[in-house]
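pls design
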């Protein structure tokens, strides 16, 4: 709904900013749009003031999206203009400087980070760096595929140092923002101010360094910035979606510097970590869970990354808000079946059951059945152990696949196999044989 024509400039701009943030994303919005200020609203024309160093760039690059979003709140006849700050009052532009730093997200803290087997080293290293910048691991290089918590840890370091580091100066940036700042400074001939803003900090946090590839001028400037910070004993933390040696589009001298400190990876969360992440998110957002077990249901289905996992919970809550239905297993299954179809772990469990049953001349029904006879119990335990090791299936789901046994029985079976193969060479050989056969069958299915 469009705002009335007599709206105040600030009111109109605030409404337009909500549209702009959705259209551009948080990072781009904070770098280029947040510094703009509403000056006047006259006859449907919204006048904005921009820092002199970025006014021309913002007008050229973001003019169309600015106008589109302003029209969304003021009506189809509205338009927008961007002038340099102070140009109306004095006609003289202020000294140029790089755009303001990207703000740290206060929600990304160490307290809100869920620790699991896949991210324990990265978390511990990040906390050590936050407590002793420049003294623990320098540089700290965090790498992982998207959505596993790299940016969370980067912001957590910044927030921790800001809260407890006294006068320690922190700057967070992305490589995209660094590149844009550098190009702006080149055009405005303000390279000295640009260099000062990045090189005179105590902790420099840089996200997504893989985007340096094929940007020769930016990479050169980044190299000198890295050296200036590092050689004066100040802290660098970088994130990337791959290992330094895999950054083929970046010069070797920079890759070597990335590897000079600690390289820590973040792996996909296991089932228990995924449940803990969902439980924390539900608590923070005060989600009215009709049945707490729905968190396990989501964690069983969504295994890719944390962002996708939390997105699944958000969709369930949205469906609840739109329909008024309770957040229970029925509603959750409906949402998951639409957005995240059942994973292929059940056929894989079936292959394991078929393999073990054939090896020990049993039927799958016997493996799943209630009999505790020795000729069935050991193969069943092996099948359960293999399922736990070779799939990402939860204990509860494994139990259901083996005759509705509970998770304690599954844990006992896994423990029994692990203990027996240590002291029984025959049992160890049988397990190795089953693993090799399973690997071979997987390879044949892919070929």
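designed seq:
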């Amino acid at each position: 709904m469009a705002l009335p024509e007599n709206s105040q400039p600030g009111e109109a701009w605030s409404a337009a900013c909500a549209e702009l943030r959705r259209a551009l994303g948080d990072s781009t919005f904070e770098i280029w749009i947040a510094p703009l200020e509403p000056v006047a609203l006259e006859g449907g024309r919204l006048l904005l003031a921009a820092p002199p160093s970025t006014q021309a760039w913002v007008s050229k690059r973001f003019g169309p999206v600015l106008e589109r979003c302003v029209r969304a709140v003021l009506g189809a006849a509205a338009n927008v203009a961007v002038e340099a700050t102070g140009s109306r009052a004095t006609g003289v532009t202020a000294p140029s400087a790089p755009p303001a730093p990207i703000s740290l997200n206060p929600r990304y803290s160490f307290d809100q980070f869920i620790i699991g087997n896949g991210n324990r080293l990265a978390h511990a290293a990040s906390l050590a760096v936050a407590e002793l910048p420049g003294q623990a691991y320098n540089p700290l290089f965090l790498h992982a595929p998207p959505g596993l918590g790299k940016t969370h840890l980067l912001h957590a370091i910044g927030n921790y140092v800001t809260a407890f580091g006294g006068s320690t100066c922190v700057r967070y940036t992305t490589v995209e923002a660094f590149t844009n700042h550098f190009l702006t400074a080149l055009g405005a001939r303000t390279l000295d101010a640009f260099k000062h803003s990045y090189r005179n900090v105590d902790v420099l946090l840089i996200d997504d360094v893989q985007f340096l590839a094929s940007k020769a001028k930016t990479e050169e400037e980044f190299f000198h910035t890295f050296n200036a910070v590092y050689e004066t004993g100040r802290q660098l933390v970088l994130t990337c979606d791959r290992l330094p040696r895999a950054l083929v589009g970046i010069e070797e001298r920079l890759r070597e510097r990335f590897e000079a400190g600690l390289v820590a990876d973040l792996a996909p969360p296991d089932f228990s970590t995924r449940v803990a992440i969902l439980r924390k998110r539900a608590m923070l957002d005060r989600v009215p869970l009709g049945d707490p077990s729905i968190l396990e249901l989501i964690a069983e289905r969504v295994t890719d990354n944390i962002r996708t996992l939390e997105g699944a919970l958000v969709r369930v809550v949205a469906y609840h808000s739109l329909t008024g239905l309770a957040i229970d297993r029925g509603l959750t299954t409906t949402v998951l079946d639409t957005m995240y179809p059942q994973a292929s772990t059940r056929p894989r469990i079936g292959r394991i059951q078929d393999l073990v049953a054939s090896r020990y001349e049993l039927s799958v029904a016997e493996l799943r059945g209630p009999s505790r006879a020795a000729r069935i119990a050991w193969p069943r335990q092996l099948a359960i152990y293999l399922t736990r090791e070779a799939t990402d299936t939860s204990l509860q789901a494994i139990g259901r696949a083996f005759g509705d046994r509970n998770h304690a029985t599954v844990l006992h079976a896994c423990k029994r196999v692990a203990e027996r193969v240590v002291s029984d060479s025959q049992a160890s050989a049988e397990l190795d044989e089953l693993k090799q056969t399973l690997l071979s069958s997987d390879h044949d299915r892919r070929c």
